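FORM 12-B: Structure-to-Sequence Request
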């Protein structure tokens, strides 16, 4: 006799990611590399990773799509238990070792063909030298975002110390399924104020950005991420400091400053007065979510209206105000809801973002 198991609804963020994958958009795992230098106890590291999985319910979750259903459900406790894979590269020449690390990094975080079959968590430990290791971790994008990777580093340090010192395990983190229920309830019980706020922005948020000399058709929503994966641009520390100082002199935060610069560039390239950019927002305001793993982040449409002889300092103020406003209503935002408010056809996706999520300021 088969035992009935309870499944939990996906959060709106998970639903959005799942829909993108079904449309053929490239989906990659949430991947990070942690350099571990010193006398490493591999058995303690394995125990620390096991402790993290036990504490974070989302890493114990499998995704199963019942027959006849469009979306999968979250099944707690059905995920495969992770194993710490180990590979010794310390005897290889430097050039060959670097090439192997790069190859493994690409393979571990490659494009995901099947979100249901993908393990929710995997870890590979590379020995680079006697006192130098690199830990590559990959989590299912349905279970993690950039904030989760940041939290993982702190969690791993605490868990490793606890295993080495024989300390007590920490209490379980806030369950992601409760966050998913809360988000779904907010959307289903949205009030007139929330609906009016997004109604005012719906038409602009659904616009398609047409770049000059564009050979392909204008980017559609399934192409929100770059075709070959995210593009990451880094600034040297000196340039980052100069950016902070310049933004400060303009009375702006660095993120708002970068966002306004990007929108100004797009305006110059396209001539479109209203430039909508998808801005990544962490959605971790509640203190209970500070150390929780999960897909919390959302891409929110932030509009800049570049008209007349608008000064850049005025644009900065407007973009900052608009960004704060949409973040204030973030809990009630989903792209499919914007589509409905704009009168879009069912099944049609929102337009491409002008600012890929991986590069959000």
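FORM 12-B RESPONSE
SEQUENCE OUT:
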């Amino acid at each position: 006799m088969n035992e009935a198991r309870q499944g939990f609804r996906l959060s709106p963020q998970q639903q959005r990611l799942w829909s993108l994958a079904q449309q053929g958009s490239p989906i990659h795992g949430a991947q990070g590399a942690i350099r571990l230098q010193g006398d490493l106890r591999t058995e303690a590291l394995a125990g620390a990773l096991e402790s993290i999985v036990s504490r974070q319910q989302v890493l114990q979750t499998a995704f199963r799509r019942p027959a006849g259903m469009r979306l999968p459900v979250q099944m707690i406790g059905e995920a495969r238990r992770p194993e710490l894979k180990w590979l010794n590269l310390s005897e290889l020449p430097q050039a060959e070792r670097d090439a192997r690390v790069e190859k493994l990094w690409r393979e571990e975080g490659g494009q995901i063909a099947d979100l249901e079959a993908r393990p929710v968590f995997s870890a590979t430990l590379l020995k680079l030298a006697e006192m130098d290791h690199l830990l590559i971790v990959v989590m299912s994008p349905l279970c993690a975002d950039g904030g989760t990777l940041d939290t993982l580093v702190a969690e791993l340090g605490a868990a490793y110390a606890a295993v080495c010192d024989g300390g007590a395990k920490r209490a379980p983190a806030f369950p992601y399924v409760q966050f998913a229920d809360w988000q779904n309830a907010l959307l289903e019980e949205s009030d007139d104020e929330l609906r009016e706020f997004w109604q005012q922005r719906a038409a602009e948020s659904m616009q398609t950005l047409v770049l000059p000399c564009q050979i392909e058709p204008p980017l559609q929503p399934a192409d929100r991420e770059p075709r070959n994966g995210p593009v990451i641009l880094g600034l040297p520390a000196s340039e980052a400091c100069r950016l902070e100082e310049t933004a400060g002199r303009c009375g702006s935060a660095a993120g708002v400053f970068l966002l306004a610069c990007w929108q100004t560039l797009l305006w110059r390239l396209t001539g479109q007065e209203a430039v909508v950019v998808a801005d990544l927002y962490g959605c971790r305001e509640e203190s209970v979510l500070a150390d929780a793993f999960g897909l919390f982040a959302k891409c929110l449409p932030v509009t800049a209206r570049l008209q007349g002889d608008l000064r850049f300092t005025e644009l900065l103020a407007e973009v900052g105000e608009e960004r704060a406003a949409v973040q204030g209503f973030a809990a009630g935002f989903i792209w499919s809801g914007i589509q409905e408010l704009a009168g879009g056809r069912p099944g049609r996706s929102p337009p491409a973002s002008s600012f890929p999520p991986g590069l959000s300021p």
